[in-house]
Amino acid sequence: MGNTDTNMCVNRTGYLGGEHAYHSGCCCQGAVLFIPPRGYMSSVLSSLPLQSSPRSWPRQLLPSFLTFSPTLECSSMSRHSMRISSGPGGLSGGSIVTQRRVVTTSSAPKAFSMYGAPGYGSRIASTSMHAVSSGLGAGFGAGAGGFSGLDSESIQLNEKATMQNLNDRLASYLDKVRSLEKANAELEAKIREHCEKKGPIAQRDYSAYWATINDLKDKIAAATVDNANVLLQIDNSKLAADDFRTKYEHELMMRQSVEADIANLRRLLDQTTLTKADLEMQIEGLQDELAYLKKNHQEDLAALRSQLTGTVNVEVDAAPQQDLKKVLDEMRMQYENITEKHRRDQEAWFNDQSAVLTKEVAISTETIQTSKTEITDLRRTLQGLEIELQSQLSMKGALENTLAETENRYSAMLAGFQNQIHILEADLAQVRASIEQQGHEYKMLLDVKSRLEQEIATYRALLEKEETKGPGTGPTVRSVS
Fold it and tell me: Is 475 within the bounds of a domain?
């Protein structure tokens, strides 16, 4: 938009019975100056959300002098008179000032100001002021929203009282701004206290907890080792029990085998006893037969001798013959010697062979015993190695399970720490954004404060200037943005 020279009019609003009456001749959409009654600014500002940004305040909650329309449609008016009825809240007297000023508006969005709404900015380039005496009257009736016509009779308004009233209301508005500054300072103090309470994670001192954590870690490691040792002992006991069970079963089988051998030997003993009794009976029968044969032989010899004695002995002179008995005895002796020699030879050979066999049997028995001992030792060694292998496998499984549990536990702890870090980072980002937003709002409030202080200084200068002029001269009101 370009520069526009527009006549702006001052609207005054009176409160008669809670109803508003506006001047029928004014068509301004953006009011240059609005003089509210006492307590109006406090009620308006108390309805605004002070903790939020001024950009988010609803426009319908703001008074007319805090809103700005970029299009100003105001009719040119020179002098008007204003009449105020004597109802409650009415003004006693004064003058209405019309002003001609050049307004330069830009369509680009600018910061929020007391004369502009968010998204628009306004800049007043120059202002021409001239006083208006009585000439324009604004009637205020008791009807709701009713309009009254212009009255020819005008009432002179007390310029000094009007400016003093304006100054008081602006001072109350400045007090409200100061209260907002105080609330903003309290909010900043709360934010700073909250940030100090949280504090950065890197500055926290966890050294007092590391000793307890290390002690607990050592206890956990010791308990894990003790648990592994107990499991190892249990596995060793199980393996030893299995070994003893195997040995028991083996010994039980050997006992059953020995008992079976004993039963077989008992049967053989019974058979041998029966055979011995049979042989003894045979020996007795042979002895009886031998005695019987000897007896018969003696009887036969006796009979032969008796026969010989009964015969005639005829002696014949013949050549002497050898004695047959002697010859038989010699032959018997020779045969007996030969038999004895053969017996001794056979006995010596038998003894030699028996000694050789005995030595071989002894050597074989010793070899067998040694082999059995070696086999037993090898079996024991094998069982010990198997037990040790099982124990090592059990220890390996226990250590693997412990390692897996430790990895899972520390993975879960690490994931929890990562989640906490993400949460704290998000909180930190939110706090930073909130601090930036509060700083921006603080700057905006400072800007509003500076503008209001400039307004107050201007009004005070005007008051002092009016006081120096003396009575009878109209006030000059200048709006500064």
Answer: no
Same domain, 392 and 243: yes
Q: How many residues does the chain have?
A: 481
Residue 225: C-alpha distances to residues 66, 212, 220, 228, 398 (Å) = 78, 20, 9, 5, 10
Regarding whether 423 and 274 lie in a shared domain, the answer is: yes
Query: What span, in angstroms and rounded, lies between the C-alpha atoms of 313 and 325?
Result: 20
- C-alpha torsion sign, points 109, 44, 161, 19: positive
How many domains would you assign to the chain? 2
The pTM for the full model equals: 0.26
Asked whether residue 232 falls in the same domain as residue 371, the answer is: yes
Q: pLDDT digits over 18-42, tens only?
A: 333 333 333 333 333 444 444 544 4
Q: Which residues pair with 157 in a beta bridge?
A: 94
Residues 123 and 9 in one domain: yes
Q: Which residues contact 54 (CB under 8 A, 6 or more apart)?
A: 112, 118, 441, 444, 445, 448
Which one, of 94, 75, 67, lies nearest residue 23 by Cα? 75
The count of other CB atoms within 10 Å of the CB of residue 220 is 13
Range of the domain at 55: 3-157
Q: What is the pLDDT of residue 444?
A: 92
CB-based contact 140:21 (threshold 8 Å)? yes
Count CB-CB contacts under 10 A for residue 124: 17
Dihedral sign from CA coordinates of 424, 429, 433, 435: positive
Same domain? For 268 and 412 the reply is yes
Q: Is 131 left (phi over 0), alpha (psi -120 to 50) or beta?
A: beta
Segments of the chain with pLDDT less than 50: 1-38, 40-42, 44-45, 48-154, 473-481
Task: Write down the pLDDT at residue 200.
Answer: 57
Report the C-alpha gap between 287 and 302 in whole angstroms: 22
CA distances from 375 to 250, 290, 372 (A): 14, 59, 5
pLDDT score of 351 = 87
Q: What is the pLDDT of residue 315?
A: 56
264 in the same domain as 357 = yes
Catalogue the E-assigned strands of 294-425. none
Strand order in the sheet with 121-130: 3-8, 98-106, 121-130
Asked whether residue 146 falls in the same domain as residue 212, the answer is no
Q: Is 443 in a helix, a strand, or coil?
A: helix
Whether 313 is in a domain gets the answer no
CB 138 within 8 A of CB 82: yes
Burial class (CB in 10 A: 0-12, 13-18, 19+), 313: exposed
Helix, strand, coil percentages in the chain from 3-state DSSP, rounded to 5: 65, 5, 30
Q: How far apart are CA 119 and CA 121, in angstroms?
A: 7
Query: Sign (positive/negative) of CA torsion 415, 417, 421, 427?
Result: positive
Are 172 and 119 in contact by the 8 Å Cβ rule? The answer is no
